[in-house]
Task: structure prediction
Amino acid sequence: MAKLQAGKQETRKPILSASPKSYARMADTAAGVIDREIFSCGKVYADELEKLFTRAWLFIGHESQIPNPGDFFVSRMGAESVILCRDRQKKIHVLLNSCRHRGMKVCLYDTGNTVNFTCSYHAWSYATDGALVGVPMEKALYEGMDKSQWSLIEVAQMANYKGTIWATWDRDAPPFLGYLGDVREHLDLVLDCRDGREGGSELFGGVQKWIIPSNWKLSAENFCGDTYHNPSHQSVDMVGLGASAAKGVKGRHDNELADAQHLWISYPGGHGIHCAMKPADSPYIPSFGDQNIIEDYFRHCHQERLARLGEKARMRPFVGTIFPNTSFNGRIPRSFSVWHPHGPTTTEVWRFYLVDKDAPAEVKTFLRRYYMRYSGPAGMTEQDDMENWNYATNGAMGTIAKRYPFNYQQSMNKAHRGDPVPGLVSTQVTEENARGFYRGWSRYMMDRNWPQIYAAEDRA
Amino acid sequence: MNGRGLPYFELKHQAEEFLYEEAELLDQRRFDEWLELFTDDLVYFMPIRRNVKFGEHAAHENTREGEDISWFEEDKATLSKRVAQINTGVHWAEEPLSRVCHMVSNVQLVEIRPAVEDAREIVVRSRFLIYQNRVEYESYFFVGKRTDLLRRENGRWKNARREIILDQNVLLAKNLTVFF
Result:
């Protein structure tokens, strides 16, 4: 094995001359070193909005947020506002929230129901399918206007995957399932019912949105499977957060994965996940202390899932990132996080929480309250992450500091392709997934075409 | 004075003193003593606020307790865990400890049960302005309204229910490590 490159960079070009080629140098995943500049530089950030967020598939929301015709939920793609809505024919659309006349937002609300989106400036009015239907004094002032040319701008492709809505601005992007590739199985583990039935999940009401003073990639990278950061959560492990915490039981989680082989898997396109493989025929491990209703429910789900999926039931989700900025927690908590770019050193996080639609009320209450105390800005676990990402970002700003790259050399050359499951698989704590994430990132930044973005890791 | 006599003002004074004393305990970081101000059946709730169309505020502006995801929906046991976490000294979001200042104002008695002369429960509304200064350069302002249910237990007032209305849509702080 080649000697690991030292964390030293003798000469570096000023970032203002960043060319596509320089992105390969900044994210040198073969050597396991990454330039700090990519976490703080305004030019890099502007390039990300232009080259990455206009092409990649992005998470928009969930169909359960817009059950009826006219329902809308205002979401984001990159740094821009979009409207997720259901038209009168019940068809779902994702539309840029910007009037074609002077660019005002045509929808000023977070959520609601409407017949039209009418701009507050000059009152151009759009139907829920995006069509321009009203222009004040049209006949007198806009003779011969073809309103069909001035609809709200609609995404190039949209996908509804088991209720989750995704979209891209790139009509040449692979269809959503092709974009996912083999990481799809892990998205299924998040979205499918706990008892193994396909789909069946929905969102709780209430989307947490907050601003964190950090670069969006640090969070996305963390959720790819940075298991190494566990020491920073020492305090919550000391006091206990799980179902039996009130009775003095320590730790963050239940025990379900106690007998599992943890796997970290990197996929073409930059996706990365951390999951766990249970032994064959492993028995249900009680995890909910004296909460009998919850325990009975999850024991029942475990048995049903085993009967339904057989060997496949061994795989359990943990966390992951669907490239570029949608992360998930797959178990308890069970959520999607979208790391919206909000500036070179600022991220707006949106957190959506999932539950099986037909779970008993007691289970929903238990999970909802657990999610809130684990995750988000009030989450006893995640608060420490926010602190880390904040100050890691600050550490990417110093003039001297930026001459020295970050070290991404953990468990180099230890991953195996397709063993025991598809993907580039690690069986020890690793930064292979982070390297895969930045390999994908640099390919977008270098304007690579889609086959090049999805090429094997040893090809530039 | 709308028939409000001395007993009413005495009661209001007690409510104000309760809230000021609480702010003092928090700002002095006496978190364990602060916890003692709450009853064992405490509800500590802070909804998320949405931008909604005129006329829909009552129905949809705030996330619902018992139904939706909010910022906080806590009981005494989980709130105690938050204090215990800070007291570990390795809760990095509060280590080193932030400098926090609680300002309380606009104290009003909304409900007195059963009567002023024999008050066993009072509903108290107030405004808060909380300033948090963290490490070197971070500062956050949390401004909003609270509604508390104070209950007399063994001769002293305790808080049985706190609803916190934070006047923000997108939370402009990275964390909610301060107590409200």
